Amino acid sequence: EGEVLTKARHGSDQKETKPPKRFTEASLIKEMERRGIGRPSTYAPTVAILKGLPVKGKPTRTPYVRVVKGSLVPTPEGERLVEFLERHYPWLVDCGFTKEMEERLDRIEEHGEPWRAFVQEVVERIESPKGD
Predict the structure, then answer these.
(1) Residue in 125, 52, 58 with CA at minimum distance from that of residue 93
(2) Both 102 and 59 in a single domain?
């Protein structure tokens, strides 16, 4: 009795988290450079492959991204591929593995590190569950 009630605000102070901005072709290449994955000679072909474009005379592939208002947006096939890789071969979609692989390839090329051992390691990882 005798209490003063204040009007409650309708609505919410909650803010929705926005998803990260999608990559453009240029920002994807810049991020690959920043993370040390790929090489200048592989950046454009990588984007072309993602878009399903022919590379070095090889036929068109399944597009895994499409360009929407300048941004790279995954296609349903691209989403399925990522889900499959994350489930069965998570190490293949790990930037750390890619960077390590690039460094190993450099050592093979520049210092004569045995390439057969490297290939065998990768094959064994692919053949084992979860790449353990």
Answers:
(1) 125
(2) no
* Whole-angstrom distance, CA of residue 38 vs CA of residue 21: 22
User: Does residue 16 fall inside a structural domain?
Assistant: no
Question: Confidence class of residue 4 from pLDDT cuts 50, 70 and 90?
Answer: low
Q: pLDDT tens digits for 27-42?
A: 999 999 999 888 889 9
Terminal-residue alpha carbon distance, the chain: 69
Nearest partner of 101 among 118, 126, 124, 123, judged by Cα: 118
Return the closest-CA partner of residue 96 out of 36, 55, 30, 20.
36
CA–CA separation, 41 vs 51, rounded Å?
A: 17
* Residue 35 falls inside a structural domain: yes
Local structure of 12: helix, strand or coil: coil
How many domains, the chain? 2
Residue 125 to residue 85: CA distance in whole angstroms: 13
Tokens 């592939």, residue? 61
